[in-house]
Amino acid sequence: MKEISLSFSLMRRASSLSVLALVCLLCKPQPVHAQVIGGGGGGGGPCVSSCPSGSTCGTYTIWDIGKFNGFSPQSIVDDVSGISNQVGAPAMVTSMENNCSSSSGLLYWNPSTNKFKGFCVANGFQFPVDLNRSTKSSSSNWYQPRFGSGDVWATVNGNAAYAPYMNFRGSSNFTRWDGINADSATGIRVNAGNGKVYFGNYGDPNNATAEPAEIIELDPATNKVRKWRTGNRPYQLWFDGTYVWATAVATTATSSGTSMSATTGTSSGTSGSGTFPDQILRLNPAATSGTNLTRWNLPVNGSFQPFDPVNGTTNPDHIVADLEGKVWFTETPANKIGRLDLATNKITEYTKKDVQGSSIILGSQNISSSGIGSTLQAFFTEDPGNALSVLTNSKATSQGGGAATPVSVVKTSSFVSPATSYATPRAFTVSPTVVNITPEMCQVVGQDPSGIFRFPTPNNPATDTSPGGPFTFGPTGITRAVTPHSVFGSLHGSSHVFKFSSSAIIAPPPSACREEDGDWHQDNAKHDGGKAHGHKHHTECEDDAKQMAGDDEYQDSSSGVDFRSTQYTSVTHDDLLHSVTVTGLGTNNGLPVAFTIIAVDSTLVPPGSFTIILSDGVTNTLGGGLLGGGYTNSGSLSDGSILLNTVE
């Protein structure tokens, strides 16, 4: 990695990967993603050659990333259309606790081509990752950093110099920021609407210099930082387009280091200090008055460590919103899943127990959601339960389906004033490791089908180069339903990522669409010093080839051109040349014309270029203007940008 020399005096986590080393090395309560709460309890599942009659089975396709010294993959996000532009499409992006044997970093992988690309970034403990799914970049000048679509963001816990950092799409170029001072950074999410980035700082009130628990906003376009103190400790985050959601873990000390209760629920003041239990938080970062921070107490509250399901701690972990507007979260040591209904302020908890009353779900970890109504499902991982579980909401809420009676929870709101500062960006590059990995297959038998269907992770692959030997536990990251009947995930504590497919997954995958946007100037057709102006916004969806909508506009006053599209007939992408060709019909000064447009992405082929060909069926031999015939202009952009993109 090429970068300025850095001091890593803030790192408090060694590269040892065992749970024992993790517990021993930390001198303070510290977030531990995948929140391992025991040894190999729960066991794995045997591979079967055929599915027994009357059973529902699932198939794990498993890639051993130990082939390039990758170990302990964590959270994962899907990139079905490949907007990260690293390994093609489809792609998965995985946060790596350890890459190249020691450093945390990023892993891009394509389950269709078996191509894997890993970046070793920094020492420290990295578990969250997010993909910027926006349709715009935050800079209008091609020579400036273009934070936007396809960029990947992460935080490193225990290394404030990389909290956060990001990887520009399709490149080995990275940026981190000095001066944010989030030494115990946690979950991260990107606002696709404006490019701002949100992440948690778990805080350490027991330090000589107290670290407050807070939610942090970074605007990478301006380097402005805002921090909202939360009192209790933000862990994982979700962004729904307006609000930042977070799971918040109760703490036993105030931000000034004095003792506090972990079980009361008083409201915060403007400083964010106070006493708070385990909660779900919702921050409105746009609010300047009234209330901006809302809290929901969880039904049973406790402290983060030690993990103690017997005494009823909840320790909220991962969080996600579903398509019905309700919020799902995992409660790791409580062995439960929760769903918050914002309309009623009620939480429904889901669990499974055997005839002796012992929990069958063990250590719920990451959670995702797909579908709506009768197809609404939540997918979550269990460690040490060693299972991937499929929760079908309509079945789980039926009699005997594992859902408890919804309970009303305490909701409080307040205004917390953010502290404002500015950070200093630092650019660096990282050379990737690229390999192809052949996967293995393992079919397993599903267990406990009523409401929550559990599929054990395989316990004995044919080959396994993990540093810890053959894996039997550790499922953590999980995606939504990405392709029909399939989700993707990771196995913490091993060197494996996987695809899981089963008929038990009934939620439909998202409808992937491609989008092109731009606003720019270029030399006019006469090249006399004047400028032509173009505008583009166009969308087409993979599941409906006829669904093409948008508008293209182009003005060149020197040639009397005022073009507007009215109908699209074809859209063709060339992902090698980073271009799109669009044909259709439109008008020029109100008269009908046919058009062909070729646009080249400004980010990947700076500064981008644009070609437009108009024709009304009459050949123009004079050139330069329409004059009863055609018009052509082609060239590089002089300012502005064209972004060829995918959205969902």
Give your account of this protein's structure.
- By secondary structure, the chain is an all-beta fold.
- The chain contains 2 helices and 42 strands.
- Strand 19 (327-331) and strand 20 form a beta hairpin.
- The two termini are 33 Å apart.
Task: Count helical runs.
Answer: 2
- What is the 3D shape? globular
Strand content: 35-45%
Let me know the average pLDDT: 81
Fold blueprint:
Layout: H1 19-25, E1 57-64, E2 71-79, E3 91-99, E4 103-110, E5 115-122, E6 129-131, E7 152-154, E8 165-167, E9 173-178, E10 185-190, E11 197-201, E12 214-219, E13 224-229, E14 233-239, E15 244-249, E16 279-283, E17 293-297, E18 316-321, E19 327-331, E20 336-341, E21 346-350, E22 364-370, E23 377-382, E24 387-392, H2 393-396, E25 407-408, E26 411-414, E27 419-422, E28 424-429, E29 433-436, E30 440-445, E31 452-456, E32 475-478, E33 486-491, E34 496-502, E35 513-523, E36 531-541, E37 544-556, E38 561-574, E39 579-588, E40 591-600, E41 609-615, E42 631-647
Antiparallel strand pairs: 1-30, 1-34, 2-3, 3-4, 4-5, 5-29, 6-7, 7-8, 8-9, 9-28, 10-11, 11-12, 12-13, 13-27, 14-15, 15-16, 16-17, 17-26, 18-19, 19-20, 20-21, 21-25, 22-23, 23-24, 24-31, 32-33, 33-34, 35-36, 35-42, 36-37, 37-38, 38-39, 39-40, 40-41, 41-42
Précis, in short:
The protein has 648 residues and is mainly β. The strands form eight sheets. It has an eight-stranded antiparallel β-barrel with strand order 35-36-37-38-39-40-41-42. A five-stranded antiparallel beta sheet has the order 30-1-34-33-32, with no helix packed on it. Strands 2-3-4-5-29 form a five-stranded antiparallel beta sheet, with no helix packed on it.
